[in-house]
Amino acid sequence: MKRGVLLVNLGSPDSPEPKDVKKYLGEFLMDERVIDIPYAARALLVRGIILKTRPKASAAAYKKIWWEEGSPLIVISERLQNKIQKQVDIPVGLAMRYGSMTIEKGLQELVDKGVEEVLLFPLYPQFAMATTETILVKAEELRDMHFPNLKLESVPAFYNKADYIEVLSNSIKLHLEGKNQEHLLFSYHGVPERHIRKSDITKSHCKIDRSCCATPSKAHEFCYRHQCLEVTRLVAEKLQLGEGTYSTSFQSRLGFDPWLQPYTDRTIERLGKEGVKNMAIVTPAFVSDCLETLEEIAMEGQEIFHEMGGNDFTTIPCLNDDDDFVNLLSNWITQWHKK
Ligand SMILES: C=CC1=C(C)c2cc3[nH]c(cc4nc(cc5[nH]c(cc1n2)c(C)c5CCC(=O)O)C(CCC(=O)O)=C4C)c(C)c3C=C
Ligand SMILES: [Fe+2]
Ligand SMILES: [Fe+2]
């Protein structure tokens, strides 16, 4: 069987104009795995409330980070794809879960190259229903509708793979050289707490308390919170970070439901108030820099820190198309191809 790979990331609007942002947010937020409430309530919330105001504000934020070549997330994902393609012998496609670079087009391009078996590669280190799961479900739906003979496999969450932790830790170390930060904050994209309970395959383990994510359980294969806390723990171990010099928080909450805590903006505020003058922040839920890292963290986060009296605020870039990350993903793809 001829094999190929489809890298899949989240997606971005076609442009930072409010009409394109509205179209993109409409598709994204109407996904039942992102806003997981019944269809009628979701439509009312998204089309009746969120899309009336958010596109203008989001478009203004996108304008601040947009590159000449396009959305950073898309441009970086394309660079990653091109570099991986140079290292592996099978076709490597790229698609986005939302927006114009659809998974359907990505699968079609691979099929046109004669591919009969596709390795779906969600570009997320941690599993979440709003990211990995929605990609896999969408790809299966498309296969059943348009490509009935195509075989699909997928790469599981890679948050705890030793070689990934090594590449991430080395990148953090490199970007912190000579920085002397007092605190390193690991900020992950948040999700509503309800998502964690829904993904708990044991239906009883996840209590979102101090101990559940540290107590071994089958639930952890699909527990976003456990997987984020593990990345922090493993990197801290590798870099020998001292107790109290690092912590974990969750960013980008939307709406009024409780999301995973502590929240990043409040944590930055607290650190500044406590007298921390020099902090750094890393965002390991994202493999590519995007709106949430370039604007929410590097711009807004920095502003909060300075307002609270902080001085140096270092934002560590995502792994993007760094050579070590390219080598890592290419190795995994080659291993799969040879199996
Ligand atoms: C209920 C809403 C949302 C959930 C749940 C959610 C989960 C989630 N998202 C990412 C990664 C990204 N999200 C990005 C932008 C973004 N996310 C939401 C909402 C939810 N995300 C919104 C409304 C937006 C758009 C921007 C805004 O209006 O604030 C991005 C950036 C995209 C870009 O174009 O740069 C990424 C990446 C993860 C990993 C995740 C769950 C783990
Ligand atoms: Fe998001
Ligand atoms: Fe847990």
Keywords:
four-stranded parallel β-sheet, binds the ligand C=CC1=C(C)c2cc3[nH]c(cc4nc(cc5[nH]c(cc1n2)c(C)c5CCC(=O)O)C(CCC(=O)O)=C4C)c(C)c3C=C, 339 residues, Rossmann fold, globular, binds fe (ii) ion, alpha/beta
What does this structure look like?
The protein has helices at residues 18-29, 39-65, 72-87, 103-112, 129-146, 162-176, 193-198, 224-239, 264-273, 291-294, 296-307, 323-338; strands at 3-9, 92-96, 117-122, 151-154, 183-189, 246-251, 278-282, 312-315. It is α/β, with parallel strands linked by helices and 339 residues long. It has two domains: 3-157 and 323-338, Rossmann fold, CATH 3.40.50.1400; 162-315, Rossmann fold, CATH 3.40.50.1400. Strand 3, helix 5 (129-146) and strand 4 (151-154) form a beta-alpha-beta unit. The longest helix has 27 residues, at 39-65. It starts with a strand and ends with a helix. The model has no long low-confidence stretch (mean pLDDT 97). Ligand L6N33NVT is lined by residues 10, 12, 25, 34-35, 54, 58, 71, 73, 124, 128, 130-131, 189, 191, 224, 252, 254, 285-286, 290-292.
Given the C-alpha coordinates, what overall shape results?
globular
- Following the backbone from N to C, one meets helices and strands in this order, namely EHHHEHEHEHEHHEHEHHEH
Please bin the fraction of helical residues. 40-55%
The counted number of beta strands is 8
> Proportion of β residues?
5-15%
CATH architecture of the largest domain: 3-Layer(aba) Sandwich
Multimerization status: single chain
Report the CATH C-level class of the largest domain.
Alpha Beta
Classification by helices and strands: alpha/beta
| Straight-line N-to-C gap | 12 Å
Number of helical elements: 12
Main β-sheet description: 4 strands, parallel
The CATH topology of the largest domain comes to: Rossmann fold
Instruction: Please give the domain count.
Output: 2
Ions, cofactors and other bound molecules = ligand L6N33NVT, fe (ii) ion
Rounded radius of gyration (Å): 20 Å
